[in-house]
From TrEMBL:
This protein's GO CC annotations: cytoplasm
GO biological process: pyridoxal phosphate biosynthetic process; pyridoxine biosynthetic process
Assembly and interaction partners: Homodimer.
Listed name of the protein: 4-hydroxythreonine-4-phosphate dehydrogenase
Cofactor(s) in the UniProt record: a divalent metal cation
Catalytic activity from the UniProt record: 4-(phosphooxy)-L-threonine + NAD(+) = 3-amino-2-oxopropyl phosphate + CO2 + NADH
Similarity field: Belongs to the PdxA family.
Subcellular location(s) of the protein: Cytoplasm
Phylogenetic placement of the source organism: Bacteria, Pseudomonadati, Thermodesulfobacteriota, Desulfuromonadia, Desulfuromonadales
Entry's cofactor comment: Binds 1 divalent metal cation per subunit.
Main function: Catalyzes the NAD(P)-dependent oxidation of 4-(phosphooxy)-L-threonine (HTP) into 2-amino-3-oxo-4-(phosphooxy)butyric acid which spontaneously decarboxylates to form 3-amino-2-oxopropyl phosphate (AHAP).
UniProt source species: Syntrophotalea acetylenivorans
Length: 336
């Protein structure tokens, strides 16, 4: 039996539980080539299934055999889904969009359990549903979010956030910073390490022998020879040259206003972006529903939905499960 992909349930008061149930009830996981196991809460998942008019039962499993990672199984008609029951929250009392301390503690438990079983080799990878960062902090998590928590758990200092779709991949040098802080955060070393980690991961997990990386400029028109800024000359070009000396197919600095046209035509395998919106605006324009967040640089496979807890949709059944299905599919492809 192949190693499973673990799906962490995320915030019990967000859309995570219902997009998992929606995808499963609609049989969207039928083509997935590995067993799936949800790390979460049986009662919360039952409440999520009820949104779609489905009655789901939770069956206890013996902790041995090919289902050794699971402790329970969700049943709905002929469908079954493995569940590792890691919390017993009072589902009926939970308020959508208002995670309490117990919810925050449960979110951490789901993530850490999945990560540990990926590190041990018992699971092939993990797919994460969205969490609430404030709830994580209230529960004692010092990391500001999913990515940092996983990096610390895996003993890794530097990771790269990649957002991926069928037409475009973007890798970010800086992530959640005020735009005014980006120039000060950029160094040749940070840019180079982002290029290196991206190249290694694309070779290892995406079967690209020599990935073609386009490195973007920070300023309009790539600085226009220094008229609009000199970060290209001082910071970005030296990093590209160092990467090329290491045998990495990196080019640039490219002007961001034109480069994405060529990237979506297939001229590049990934685009290295200097800041968050530089990469995510074109990515979400093309892949708003099916984009996948991938953490590069970890010793494990981790993909995630490319959206948040969506409290405005939680409990309505209207949240799309497309990004979750894309994240599961990509995790399986990476594991192969």
């Amino acid at each position: 039996m192949k190693q499973p992909i673990i799906i962490t349930m995320g915030d019990p008061t967000g859309v995570g539980p219902e997009i998992i149930m929606k995808a499963w009830l609609e049989d969207n996981f039928s083509d997935v080539q590995r067993p799936l196991l949800v790390a979460g809460d049986g009662a919360v998942l039952q409440r999520a299934a009820a949104i779609f008019g489905a009655e789901v039962t939770v069956e206890a499993l013996a902790d041995d055999g090919p289902q050794a990672l699971a402790s329970h199984r969700l049943l709905c008609g002929e469908r079954s889904l493995l569940l590792k029951k890691l919390s017993e929250l009072p589902a009926a009392d939970l308020v959508y969009g208002a995670p309490d301390l117990a919810c925050g503690q449960a979110m951490i438990r789901y993530i850490e359990w999945a990560c540990d079983h990926c590190l041990s080799g018992e699971a092939a990878g993990m797919v994460t549903a969205p969490v609430n960062k404030q709830a994580l902090r209230a529960a004692g998590c010092e990391a500001p979010g999913h990515t940092e928590l996983l990096a610390a758990r895996c003993g890794v200092e530097k990771v790269v956030m990649m957002l991926a779709g069928s037409r475009l991949r973007v890798c970010l040098v800086t992530t959640h910073l005020p735009y005014s802080a980006v120039p000060m955060a950029l160094t040749p070393e940070e840019i180079l390490s982002t290029v290196q980690i991206s190249a290694v991961a694309l070779r290892r997990f995406f079967s690209l022998d020599s990935p073609r990386l386009a490195v973007l400029a920070l300023n309009p028109h790539a600085g226009e020879g220094g008229q609009f800024g000199d970060e290209e000359q001082r910071l970005i070009a030296p990093a590209i040259e160092s990467a090329r000396q290491q045998g990495i197919d990196a080019s640039g600095p490219h002007s961001a206003d034109a480069l994405f046209h060529f990237a979506v035509q297939g001229a590049y395998d990934a685009v290295i972006c200097m800041y968050h919106d530089q990469g995510l605006i074109p990515l979400k324009l093309l892949h708003f529903d099916d984009g996948v967040n991938v953490t590069l640089g970890l010793p494990i496979i981790r993909t995630s939905v490319d959206h948040g807890t969506a409290y405005d949709l939680a409990g309505s059944g209207r949240a799309s499960s497309a990004s979750l299905l894309a994240a599961v599919t990509l995790a399986c492809q990476m594991a192969s």
